[in-house]
């Protein structure tokens, strides 16, 4: 499913109205009806509702909702927030229809206390004040109404398209937005539903069709962002081939393992095996070999000569060694060590297969951005920063990363010619060609040490299995998020996450794919 900006949504709407000849008020009627369908799905028996309608087309949807809820026997209090002279022509049509059926309250003319009393007494609030047309600093009277509802209202709140105060493109909230239980949006989700802080206000998101031309219908109407959708890649998750041998599903190399962080490289290795790779090798400095060998069973270990540091004279040896692997992950528990810059340079230059850089490999890159020039353009590189690592890579604050997640992920993808996986609630995957994919799976269980190592291992495994890079990354991020949903958010250990890989993978496999 595509993810759109307000402008892309307007383009789809105007194509539908101007090219296909479907009047805007028909779309508005469908929009309002679709919202009512969702409301009555949640509340099959008539309730008392306050509908708050603005003067733009979002308000127009609100008038349609008020009319249909009244037809269905609901007790409707309809409030116009703003001046009736400002109503758009489509909104005006439905405002007049409501005038025939209901007495419309005008917030301009009535006291705040009167509105508050109605809001206190209702079971349901419908927020049709502002939608994708909102931008900038939220003005009065919306600010006061929103603040009051957030603090006092106990009713169930539906937002039409966007919660009032959440900006559609960047998810900005200046200074407040309405905290709702459900948001019903039209045709496509908007970026603001998935970006912080806006995403925290949306509650459950439901996307409904209202007759607007679907995104992607023509090239001109094709956005470059999507939600991570298993239908785009589940064809790569077929059953295991009957005649497979251990090389069939790729050989992953995981480079990491400084003293004290050997667990990270071991977890990444275990995740790679669980995701299906036939061979996994872990590599650590020689001084850590024994300690790692005591920790792992199934993984092979290859250690480079050196005592917690990299010796330039072994560069040639590394070059030969790196050719053996189908995908390389560098970073889990890597630590910092003398010779690290040369080490990363050798890896970037020598590994011709897909390369995932994580953890301290990213920190080294952040301090030495010139290193990326040693990576050939045709060798896929994947960077997996969390917001702190991203901040270091771009030399901005973590707060700025969180505020501009979609933009900064793309910036780093362009700068480094790499695929960037910016981790967090709604992980964003940005590709160097400008495409972006937003992942919706995940849970707070993943906010724990080890979670990133597991993700790296899963990505490495899928890349080694020669699944196309774009798909491999989307599969990995999606499955990793699903693992978090399967376990207890507080107590889960990395093993609990790994235990669910098989069942989630099976659920995602397309039916009738026995392998061959
Ligand atoms: N797209 C579609 O396909 C379809 C869209 N539909 C619906 O239309 C909605 C979009 O309608 P829209 O374009 O009229 O904008 P909308 O959200 O009502 O906001 C405009 C109002 O916001 C106000 N305003 C702005 N900034 C503000 C601020 N900082 N603080 C305070 N106020 C501010 C602005 O006031 P002004 O700046 O003009 O004084 C104006 O009054 C969309 O979300 C969906 O629900 C469906 O009906 C059918 C198909
Ligand atoms: K709204």
UniProtKB/TrEMBL annotation:
<feature type="binding site">
    <location>
        <position position="453"/>
    </location>
    <ligand>
        <name>(6S)-NADPHX</name>
    </ligand>
</feature>
<dbReference type="InterPro" id="IPR000631">
    <property type="entry name" value="CARKD"/>
</dbReference>
<feature type="binding site">
    <location>
        <position position="264"/>
    </location>
    <ligand>
        <name>(6S)-NADPHX</name>
    </ligand>
</feature>
<dbReference type="GO" id="GO:0046872">
    <property type="term" value="F:metal ion binding"/>
</dbReference>
<keyword id="KW-0547">Nucleotide-binding</keyword>
<comment type="similarity">
    <text>In the N-terminal section; belongs to the NnrE/AIBP family.</text>
</comment>
<keyword id="KW-0413">Isomerase</keyword>
<feature type="binding site">
    <location>
        <position position="452"/>
    </location>
    <ligand>
        <name>AMP</name>
    </ligand>
</feature>
<comment type="subunit">
    <text>Homotetramer.</text>
</comment>
<keyword id="KW-0511">Multifunctional enzyme</keyword>
<dbReference type="Pfam" id="PF01256">
    <property type="entry name" value="Carb_kinase"/>
</dbReference>
<keyword id="KW-0520">NAD</keyword>
<feature type="binding site">
    <location>
        <position position="127"/>
    </location>
    <ligand>
        <name>K(+)</name>
    </ligand>
</feature>
<keyword id="KW-0456">Lyase</keyword>
<keyword id="KW-0630">Potassium</keyword>
<dbReference type="InterPro" id="IPR029056">
    <property type="entry name" value="Ribokinase-like"/>
</dbReference>
<feature type="binding site">
    <location>
        <position position="161"/>
    </location>
    <ligand>
        <name>(6S)-NADPHX</name>
    </ligand>
</feature>
<feature type="binding site">
    <location>
        <position position="333"/>
    </location>
    <ligand>
        <name>(6S)-NADPHX</name>
    </ligand>
</feature>
<dbReference type="GO" id="GO:0052855">
    <property type="term" value="F:ADP-dependent NAD(P)H-hydrate dehydratase activity"/>
</dbReference>
<dbReference type="GO" id="GO:0110051">
    <property type="term" value="P:metabolite repair"/>
</dbReference>
<keyword id="KW-0479">Metal-binding</keyword>
<dbReference type="InterPro" id="IPR030677">
    <property type="entry name" value="Nnr"/>
</dbReference>
<feature type="binding site">
    <location>
        <position position="164"/>
    </location>
    <ligand>
        <name>K(+)</name>
    </ligand>
</feature>
<dbReference type="GO" id="GO:0052856">
    <property type="term" value="F:NAD(P)HX epimerase activity"/>
</dbReference>
<comment type="function">
    <text>Catalyzes the dehydration of the S-form of NAD(P)HX at the expense of ADP, which is converted to AMP. Together with NAD(P)HX epimerase, which catalyzes the epimerization of the S- and R-forms, the enzyme allows the repair of both epimers of NAD(P)HX, a damaged form of NAD(P)H that is a result of enzymatic or heat-dependent hydration.</text>
</comment>
<dbReference type="GO" id="GO:0005524">
    <property type="term" value="F:ATP binding"/>
</dbReference>
<dbReference type="InterPro" id="IPR036652">
    <property type="entry name" value="YjeF_N_dom_sf"/>
</dbReference>
<feature type="binding site">
    <location>
        <begin position="57"/>
        <end position="61"/>
    </location>
    <ligand>
        <name>(6S)-NADPHX</name>
    </ligand>
</feature>
<comment type="similarity">
    <text>Belongs to the NnrE/AIBP family.</text>
</comment>
<keyword id="KW-0521">NADP</keyword>
<feature type="domain" description="YjeF C-terminal">
    <location>
        <begin position="229"/>
        <end position="508"/>
    </location>
</feature>
<protein>
    <recommendedName>
        <fullName>Bifunctional NAD(P)H-hydrate repair enzyme</fullName>
        <ecNumber>4.2.1.136</ecNumber>
        <ecNumber>5.1.99.6</ecNumber>
    </recommendedName>
</protein>
<feature type="binding site">
    <location>
        <position position="386"/>
    </location>
    <ligand>
        <name>(6S)-NADPHX</name>
    </ligand>
</feature>
<feature type="domain" description="YjeF N-terminal">
    <location>
        <begin position="9"/>
        <end position="218"/>
    </location>
</feature>
<comment type="function">
    <text>Catalyzes the epimerization of the S- and R-forms of NAD(P)HX, a damaged form of NAD(P)H that is a result of enzymatic or heat-dependent hydration. This is a prerequisite for the S-specific NAD(P)H-hydrate dehydratase to allow the repair of both epimers of NAD(P)HX.</text>
</comment>
<feature type="binding site">
    <location>
        <position position="58"/>
    </location>
    <ligand>
        <name>K(+)</name>
    </ligand>
</feature>
<dbReference type="GO" id="GO:0046496">
    <property type="term" value="P:nicotinamide nucleotide metabolic process"/>
</dbReference>
<keyword id="KW-0067">ATP-binding</keyword>
<dbReference type="Pfam" id="PF03853">
    <property type="entry name" value="YjeF_N"/>
</dbReference>
<dbReference type="InterPro" id="IPR004443">
    <property type="entry name" value="YjeF_N_dom"/>
</dbReference>
<feature type="binding site">
    <location>
        <begin position="423"/>
        <end position="427"/>
    </location>
    <ligand>
        <name>AMP</name>
    </ligand>
</feature>
<feature type="binding site">
    <location>
        <begin position="131"/>
        <end position="137"/>
    </location>
    <ligand>
        <name>(6S)-NADPHX</name>
    </ligand>
</feature>
